[in-house]
């Protein structure tokens, strides 16, 4: 028998079912899921409306290539359009976040015919060769050198260096408005404004990577809507298909038709089952007004976490339901200890305990998370 390749630290836990904000392990223990598979189950586990749409689609057809039409795909585009700001009118469908980032970079290169990509300290954009090249963490990159050689890293939130960083050799600038993996660092308004101005000045494309912070996670449909600064392209993924694989790029009009046939493609992109799930997830998103719920629950979670009384806590970081507690020490042991208290969380950077719960977590769930963290901070 083959065995699974190991490249994650695997926890001694087998998850067998989920319902909205909760999951259960094989021993019957229930957990509040503030890990959500790296942010994927934001619309809840097995959300009934999404599951019903998937089941109905399974009875119709499970694969249709992008060079043929499909009604589930049309329906997704129609639902998704309702949450896309004016001026963005093209969506490129992919299967994962890293593929979306690759697509955005290809658009930048094709439009400008230039080579240099600007990215930032503590960025995370994915694991394939292009997206890895613009990811900051040296541990993720060093075994795979040489990566794409023309990447210039600037310091996240350093406004002063932006003009020097972005010159007319730059095809695109990629940045997460709220950095997830890198430590829940929130961009400042002045930083994103400076990037916008510099990119426009040299006709480089500004890409916001909203794969983790987008789709309502921060309390607006898209994190950049907090800032009043618009990119040329933004990437999204994770929660959009309610748990099924998706990644996409949303582009301003003039960048919609940059690829000639043969220059881009993906076998599974726009899969009808994924599209049916994504149409249903987006319909729920709009109907219940997910961002407004996130604003309320996110501020409650941030407030209660900031009341933690522990000498280990430096501060609470993040936005909406993308919240981290920065510790004076490594976060990993606390994430493991939280598991034993029925809470699934994540780390971000080295010393941040990260919470990415589903939008429907209740006030009681918030209390349970805060109480559990309080306990483990005392005992670890
Ligand atoms: C901001 C950001 N970009 C890109 C990615 C890569 O997405 P995927 O793992 O779906 O390829 C992630 C995944 O965590 C992410 O958080």
From TrEMBL:
Q: Which Gene Ontology terms of cellular component type are present?
A: cytoplasm
Instruction: Name the InterPro entries on file.
Output: Aminotrans_3, Aminotrans_3_PPA_site, Class-III_PLP-dep_AT, LysJ, PyrdxlP-dep_Trfase, PyrdxlP-dep_Trfase_major, PyrdxlP-dep_Trfase_small
Any one Gene Ontology biological process term?
lysine biosynthetic process via aminoadipic acid
List, alphabetically, the Gene3D superfamilies matched.
Aspartate Aminotransferase, domain 1, Type I PLP-dependent aspartate aminotransferase-like (Major domain)
GO terms of molecular function: identical protein binding; pyridoxal phosphate binding; transaminase activity
Task: Report the superkingdom from the record.
Answer: Archaea
Q: Where does pyridoxal 5'-phosphate bind?
A: 97-98, 124, 209-212, 267
The cofactor binding remark recorded in the entry reads: Binds 1 pyridoxal phosphate per subunit.
The UniProt keyword set, sorted, is: Amino-acid biosynthesis, Aminotransferase, Arginine biosynthesis, Cytoplasm, Lysine biosynthesis, Pyridoxal phosphate, Transferase
- SUPFAM superfamilies reported in the protein's UniProt record: PLP-dependent transferases (SSF53383)
What is its EC class? transferase
* Coiled-coil region: none
Cofactors demanded by this protein: pyridoxal 5'-phosphate
- The EC number(s) given in the record are 2.6.1.118, 2.6.1.124
* Role: Involved in both the arginine and lysine biosynthetic pathways.
User: Which family is annotated?
Assistant: Belongs to the class-III pyridoxal-phosphate-dependent aminotransferase family. LysJ subfamily.
> Assembly and partners?
Homodimer.
**Protein name, please?**
Putative [LysW]-aminoadipate semialdehyde/glutamate semialdehyde transaminase
